[in-house]
Amino acid sequence: MSNYRPETICVQGGYAPGSGEPRQIPIIQSTTFKYATSEDMGRLFDLEASGYFYSRLQNPTCDHVAAKIAALEGGTAAMLTSSGQAANFFALFNLASCGDHIVSSSTIYGGTFNLISVTMAKMGVEVTFVSPDCSPEELNAVFRPNTKAVFGETIANPALTVLDIEKFAAAAHIHGVPLVVDNTFATPIGCRPFDWGADIVTHSTTKYMDGHGAAVGGAIVDSGKFDWMAHAEKFPGLCTPDESYHGITYAEKFGKEGAFITKCTAQLMRDLGCTPSPQSAFYLNLGLESLHVRMARHRENGQAVAEFLAAHPKVASVSYCGLPGDKYHHLAKKYLPHGSCGVVSFELKGGREAAGTFMSRLKLAAIETHVADARTCCLNPAASTHRQMTDEQLLAAGVPAGLIRISCGLESKEDLIDDINQALEAVD
Question: CA-CA distance, 205 to 101, in Å (whole number)?
Fold first, then answer.
């Protein structure tokens, strides 16, 4: 399906039924799979044959959907995880372990910030956060000999900064490490980071890919372009024998195209078990089939709401890269030529108190921790998703205390604007 356009891949990618087989991806709701002999199963455990033996590692339903996402991103291999957080953790922990170092953009989702700065720190992995607006010289200066990965988000949640993927990829490659990009908000319909030099892409499929608030999930996609063996001293987990699999060296046996995902599945999914359910994968696939259609409407609604807010006298500032005056508009024109997404961040002149009043008066938009859904939702990140961060960290992440994030769904843009307007009227 790689030769087809994204719209066709959304509908038909990842699964090609044979004669008399189900047209829809079948839900293989089974924990285990039968084999005729112990030798047949042994070859699976030795990674000498492909197949399924236990759904904690792999499941046919999940693999069909992962293959569709890989095709959409232009990658060579992919896997599903139980959540977007699991996807980011697996992608980074597959590269960095105790004693290693990560470079990350500072404007990332609060949960991922906490994952890297607190939880992975307890595991001995250090991180240096840098502004996405840093110069190439400033970016290169934070690398260390033990740096193993660079991380960022295409469109940051909720700061809505746009990552200069080429700048971050160039720095990563100068230092012999891959760039990992969370592409959740842009989706491959809006941007394909591999086209700009990224090496690994992650997703919270819970968001636009699912699109209906039906199933939590995540995905990891490998570009198949990073040469692990050329930097073997940095990545012993990929480039030296794994004794838990009889001495297999992943980068040698599975090459650039398959080593990363195979190791991630064979080691991390085996041991940590952040397993997606076949039922959730089925729901995800239903969402993917309409992703290309829905993203156009999300972008249209987001643009209309952003323009309305930018002109309103009670609004102090609006962050939306689709606005010509936005700080990241020039990067959006490069990386997001079809437009941004449905998420708009803004501040009211009355600060945190005004934000609370505004959200309490909304009728169509629900106050939720969710985002990127068919239904419009809204929240104050400093009081919810980012509440573990200090005021200084909030400012560094581009998330001031009074920031409001509104995720425009698929409703009428006129109705959304009317709802926002009447809520603004209640603000002093």
Answer: 27
